[in-house]
């Protein structure tokens, strides 16, 4: 026992007390983190639900002789979903931002998924460790740290104005197709859903690439070797073996990235998305607004009614995001098979 | 031969990866080696084009910001030395406009420091608990909960700040205004907490078990093992998590636009209204400043400073991962 240096000989009780104190701190910090989420959700629900659910009709519906859940049309304030924004809180709804979000996120996903996965395939399966691939890799890591509002500036310059190549005035645009039809395109894109979707695509692209790369890295090398040994080319191996094996993980990562896009407001704010819109998009060139931006606009107003509307829109947004998370978890659980 | 009765083609989900490889090889049309190589090259070029898109995005960011910043400094009202050393930011007020960036940097740093002072310790301690102490069942509940918190859009935290955090602060002290740095900072802290916690926990769990076992064998308590062995061993990952979280705090926009206010203020008073770089950009892009005016262009210069700050932090985070990394095998 004499071999133990004097400095380390702390009395046993003091060590035990220190350990207990630390465990208490740990429990406190973890509880705090979870409690914060609970307070956040509870406070927003109490503020927002009265704007979505008519409390009296709800009680009547679940009382004796009511229709319960089946009678949802009686107690859900459907006008909140079917009306456009209004200066009168009781007439205001989220029809335009709801549909705007759907359009923008669909465009964002349709571009970000193929471009992101193709980049990941190039870096993981084709490039090897060349200088170019290292440069691209570093570049993507740095892009992941760029604030989303900066992407808004790039979206404004590159998509909405196209660097001024087609002129800067509104009348100098080049347009293709019938303005009322579905297949209408004009250059530059202006403040359209297409610009919005592409801008959000820039924001989430690094995340999609990095999570797809991790998915490819998790595929055991033996699968590739088996395929290559059968005489398949690199692309045949990727298409038939590696990509199907990595797909569940890629989809999970992409869904989480897209749910980030649904919540983004800053880049679209820079793009100059209008606040009052009384139509839903009919083609890629239409005006739009999105849920987070509508929430921002309502939350800025001092009147309590608009704060309530903001909370109600947040409830809708969180329900959408939560269902995305559930889909991601289900994909992870169901499609994921052990590969080795 | 392919459809021999005793060797039926496997169908549906019973396909193993190796069987799929064989099936793919059988299905493949016999093509000449030259044709296959050419096809391969076309595919590789297409993939490379997608990979190069990210380089194009970076170039676009740098070119756009630099060009607009240069044209901002070319305007008669603006001087570079005033921008870099001035202590007044008043582009929209008064006769004489001042463009000294420091009040905006001050606001950004103040909000980020408040956020970090809250989120970094709480997040790290929670990560140590989840990785070292928590029973598997507790971990399995808390991890997804934190993931939900990480998925909450930032505008929601901004709403929470003005409706709940700031009123709470006003109960504590009457000094707090409706717009104040602390309310925004705490909300930003809530936003970055799950990032800190989840990334630190990954780093802690990556420390090999043998290190823990060795420390226990020497008579360490669980506390000694966690704090003196596991945390130092995971330091590179923890530092990287901290830097990433601070980067997110600096670039955060919607929370500060709602809760911190719109007055560029060179103060460190946590109860005072303050304006961050991102909040200034929101003010300009939401307002109706003409696109060739000096106010509008100033937002690009501010964006450029913001971009350089976050880029520096991101690169520092990547360097931390590389340089402090201790390899254990």
What features would you describe in this structure?
The complex is a heterodimer of chains A (340) and B (329). Chain A has 340 residues and is mostly helical. Chain A has 13 helices and two strands, in the order αααααααββαααααα. Chain A has a two-stranded antiparallel ribbon. In chain A, a hairpin with an 8-residue loop joins strand 1 (174-176) and strand 2. In chain A, helix 10 (234-263) packs antiparallel against helix 13. The longest helix of chain A has 41 residues, at 12-52. In chain B, strands 1-2 form a two-stranded antiparallel ribbon. Chain B has 329 residues and is mostly helical. Chain B has helices spanning 17-27, 33-73, 80-85, 102-133, 136-151, 154-172, 181-205, 209-217, 222-233, 235-251, 254-259, 277-286, 294-323, and strands at residues 89-90, 98-99. Helices cover 71% and strands 1% of the residues of chain B. In chain B, 45% of the residues are buried.
């Amino acid at each position: 026992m004499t071999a133990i240096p004097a400095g380390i000989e702390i009395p046993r009780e003091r060590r035990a007390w220190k350990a207990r104190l630390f465990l208490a701190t740990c429990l406190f910090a973890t509880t705090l983190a979870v409690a914060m989420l609970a307070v956040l959700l509870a406070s927003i629900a109490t503020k927002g639900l009265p704007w979505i659910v008519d409390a009296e009709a709800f009680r009547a519906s679940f009382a004796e002789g009511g229709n319960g859940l089946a009678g949802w049309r009686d107690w859900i304030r459907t006008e909140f979903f079917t009306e456009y924004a209004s200066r009168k809180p009781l007439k205001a709804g989220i029809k335009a931002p709801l549909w705007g979000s759907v359009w923008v996120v669909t465009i964002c996903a349709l571009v970000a998924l193929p471009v992101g996965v193709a980049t990941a395939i190039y870096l993981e399966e084709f490039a090897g460790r060349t200088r170019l691939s290292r440069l691209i890799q570093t570049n993507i890591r740095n892009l992941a740290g760029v604030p989303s509002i900066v992407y808004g500036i790039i979206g404004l310059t590159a998509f909405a104005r196209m660097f001024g190549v087609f002129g800067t005035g509104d009348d100098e645009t080049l347009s293709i197709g019938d303005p009322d039809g579905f297949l209408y395109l004009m250059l530059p894109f202006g403040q359209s859903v297409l610009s919005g979707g592409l801008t959000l695509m820039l924001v989430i692209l690094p995340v999609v690439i990095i999570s797809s790369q991790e998915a490819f890295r998790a595929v055991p090398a033996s699968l590739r070797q088996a395929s290559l040994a059968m005489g398949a080319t690199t692309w045949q191996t990727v298409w038939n073996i590696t990509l199907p094996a990595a797909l569940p993980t890629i989809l999970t990562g992409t869904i989480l990235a897209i749910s980030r896009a649904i919540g983004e407001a800053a880049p679209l704010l820079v793009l100059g998305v209008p606040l009052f819109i009384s139509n839903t998009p009919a083609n890629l060139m239409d005006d739009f607004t999105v849920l987070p931006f509508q929430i921002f606009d309502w939350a800025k107003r001092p009147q309590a009614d608009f704060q309530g509307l903001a909370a109600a829109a947040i409830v809708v947004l969180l329900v959408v995001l939560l269902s995305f998370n559930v889909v991601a978890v289900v994909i992870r659980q169901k499609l994921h098979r052990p590969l080795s | 031969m392919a459809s021999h009765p005793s060797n039926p083609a496997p169908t549906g989900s019973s396909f193993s990866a190796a069987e799929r490889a064989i099936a793919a090889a059988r299905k493949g049309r016999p093509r000449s080696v030259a044709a296959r190589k050419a096809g391969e090259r076309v595919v590789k070029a297409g993939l490379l084009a997608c990979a190069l898109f990210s380089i194009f995005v970076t170039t676009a960011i740098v070119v756009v910001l630099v060009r607009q910043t240069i044209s901002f400094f070319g305007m008669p009202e603006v001087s570079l030395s005033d921008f870099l050393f001035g202590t007044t930011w008043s582009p929209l007020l008064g006769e004489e406009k001042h463009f000294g960036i420091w009040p905006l940097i001050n606001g950004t740093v103040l909000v980020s420091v408040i956020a970090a002072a809250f989120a970094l310790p709480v997040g790290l301690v929670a990560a140590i608990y989840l990785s070292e102490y928590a029973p598997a069942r507790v971990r399995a509940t808390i991890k997804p909960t934190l993931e939900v918190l990480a998925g909450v859009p930032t505008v929601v935290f901004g709403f929470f700040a003005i409706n709940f955090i700031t009123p709470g602060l006003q109960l504590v002290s009457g000094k707090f205004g409706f717009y104040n740095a602390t309310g925004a900072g705490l909300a930003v802290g809530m936003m970055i907490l799950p990032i800190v916690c989840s990334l630190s926990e990954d780093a802690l769990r990556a420390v090999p078990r043998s290190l823990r076992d060795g420390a226990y064998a020497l008579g360490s308590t669980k506390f000694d093992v966690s704090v003196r062995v596991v945390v130092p061993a995971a330091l590179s990952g923890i530092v990287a998590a901290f830097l990433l979280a601070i980067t997110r705090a600096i670039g955060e926009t919607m929370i500060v636009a709602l809760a911190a206010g719109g007055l560029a203020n060179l103060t460190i008073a946590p109860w005072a209204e303050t304006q961050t770089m991102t909040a200034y950009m929101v003010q300009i892009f939401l307002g109706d400043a003409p696109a060739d005016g000096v106010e509008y262009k100033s937002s690009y210069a501010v964006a450029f400073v913001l971009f350089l700050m976050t880029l520096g932090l991101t690169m520092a985070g990547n360097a931390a991962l590389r340089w402090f990394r201790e390899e254990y095998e």
